[in-house]
Amino acid sequence: MRKILASCITVWLLLIVQVQAQSISIPSGTVSLSPLAGEIIKVEPLLDRASNPSTQITFRFILQGCVDQLLQPLFVRPERQRQKVKLYITALNAHNEASNRARCIAIPTATAAVTIPGTYRQNQIIPIFLGELDKR
Q1: Count of Cβ atoms closer than 10 Å to residue 4 Cβ
Q2: What is the 3-state secondary structure (H, E, C) of 9-21?
Q3: Nearest by Cα to 114 from 93, 88, 132
Q4: Are 96 and 5 in contact (CB under 8 A)?
Q5: Is omega for the bond preceding 73 within 30 degrees of 0, making it cis?
Q6: How far apart (Å, rounded) are the C-alpha atoms in residues 1 and 29?
Q7: Separation CA 61–CA 121 (nearest Å)
Q8: Sheet holding 84-90, edge to edge
Q9: What is the model's pLDDT at position 95?
Q10: Per-residue pLDDT of the chain (136 residues; tens, 9 = 90+)
Q11: Which string of b and e fits 77-111 if b means at least 16 CB within 10 Å?
Q12: From start to end of the chain, where are the E strands?
């Protein structure tokens, strides 16, 4: 219970800091928010921006219910470490009450992409998801 409470407090603190620059809307029917961990499925350097090179990273998340949604946008804080970058990522599952009654015919997933400054390959990116912080 304490881990859940600590995770919720961390989520809201991160949201408060990040929401100042971005607005989010909670989907209709959402009864709770919970952190998600995901996986990197695509890393694409954006080379057309010669003066400001950046990298687009696409993540896949497994949602917790069939009617649930990934809260957008993802909140990402990059921390450069020599040739690598640690990405602290807040990804939230918006749990819809209808998911309690719905039956999935496939595993519910969602994808989201973020762009960070700098050019990186997949092996240079270390993703750290909010839900994994207490496991380290």
Answers
A1: 10
A2: HHHHHHHHHHHCC
A3: 88
A4: no
A5: yes
A6: 25
A7: 20
A8: 75-81, 84-90, 125-129
A9: 95
A10: 455 545 555 555 555 444 445 677 888 899 999 999 999 999 999 877 567 889 999 999 999 999 999 998 899 999 999 899 999 999 999 999 999 999 999 999 999 999 999 999 999 999 999 866 555 5
A11: ebeeeeeebebbbbbbbbbbeebeeeeeeeebebe
A12: 30-35, 38-46, 54-62, 69-70, 75-81, 84-90, 92-96, 109-117, 125-129
Residue matched to tokens 């804080």: 77
Task: Say what the pTM is.
Answer: 0.78
Q: CA-based Rg of the chain, rounded to a whole angstrom? A: 16
Question: What is the rounded distance in angstroms from the CA atom of residue 5 to the CA atom of residue 25?
Answer: 22
Dist CA 37 CA 39 (whole Å): 7
H-assigned helices in the chain: 2-19
